[in-house]
């Protein structure tokens, strides 16, 4: 396209923005206030922010999710160590939430496979069905029948009773 346009052939539509015509020789005070604001507030803040961003760019910190240290299990806490009890309870709640999310992810994968495969879902999604069965059985073994108000102590007692039943069944056999 040539640089020198033929303005008669390609007429530019008129602009709708009116041209401001200054009718007074008195300067606009808004311009002075904007300049003062820029030099007093905006410029120093911009300088400090650029300096902080320069420091942060040197050592990048990638934050994906919070990682908690593993605390002792409730069975490892000393008697009367309430801080250990609290930490073990918090750790149990986090573990339960992670296990719930694992079950939900496997369930979503199975639903996606069923949606994708359609009528062939029983033969093509057998691995996902088996995995869901294993995950839900493990979740039920650990957290089943605890209810909404279940805690680490009742979960530990449930596991203890299940181990005692398994030992008794093994001795009988």
UniProtKB/TrEMBL annotation:
Which one Pfam family would you cite for this protein?
Answer: NDUFB10
Major site of localization recorded for this protein: mitochondrion
Q: How does it sit in the membrane?
A: Peripheral membrane protein
Q: Does the keyword Lipid biosynthesis apply?
A: no
The UniProt record lists the keyword Transport: yes
What does the UniProt keyword field contain? Electron transport, Membrane, Mitochondrion, Mitochondrion inner membrane, Respiratory chain, Transport
Q: Can you list the GO cellular component terms from the UniProt entry?
A: mitochondrial inner membrane; respiratory chain complex I
Q: Where is this region: Disordered?
A: 1-24
Q: Where does this one sit in the cell?
A: Mitochondrion inner membrane
Write down the PANTHER family for this protein, in alphabetical order.
NADH DEHYDROGENASE [UBIQUINONE] 1 BETA SUBCOMPLEX SUBUNIT 10, NADH-UBIQUINONE OXIDOREDUCTASE PDSW SUBUNIT
- Outline what the protein does: Accessory subunit that is involved in the functional assembly of the mitochondrial respiratory chain complex I. Complex I has an NADH dehydrogenase activity with ubiquinone as an immediate electron acceptor and mediates the transfer of electrons from NADH to the respiratory chain.
Q: Which family does it belong to?
A: Belongs to the complex I NDUFB10 subunit family.
- State what protein this is by name: NADH dehydrogenase [ubiquinone] 1 beta subcomplex subunit 10
What organism is the protein native to? Catharus fuscescens
Q: Which gene encodes it?
A: Ndufb10
